[in-house]
Amino acid sequence: xxxxxxxxxxxERFHQSCADKAEMLTSAAINLHLNxxxxxxxxxxxxxxxxxLRELSNVFQGLCxxxxxxxxxxxxxxxxxxxxxxxxxxxxxxxTEDSDKFKEIVQxxxxxxxxxxxxxxxxxxxxxxxxxxxxxxxxxxxxxxxxTTCPRFSTRSSPSTTx
Length: 163
Prior knowledge:
Elements: H1 2-11, H2 16-19, H3 22-39, H4 53-63, H5 74-88, H6 96-110, H7 118-121, E1 128-129, E2 142-143
Helix pairs in contact: 1-3, 3-6, 4-5
């Protein structure tokens, strides 16, 4: 499929161990897309559960926004794939049950990725950003290590109004 050619071409600049996993990651991404489209069908309440090639393209856009000096192992690409898929698919789901079902689908599909353990692949938090490194915002340059914790943000109270 075209996504495999695009992703393989992008990975030509990366370490050979990463380039060798392009076909496996492409297959996992396509299988996940098909499973999501078959599982989460639109209805009157979930009318936005429309899954087409735009979503799959968004996953690959994220995968192809990587740079070789940061992404040096296939495990990083696998975790990025989970991150991108979560942002593209799971962020549109409206119930906890649907989110849990999505996680089950990711676990099922990820069994085909023999180069990373499921626990390591799905470990939380799993964040990547393109702005934290201060570089080109079109490039995904900052993977989060699995042990990274998110800072707590304080909430500001709105100023009181007196009359």
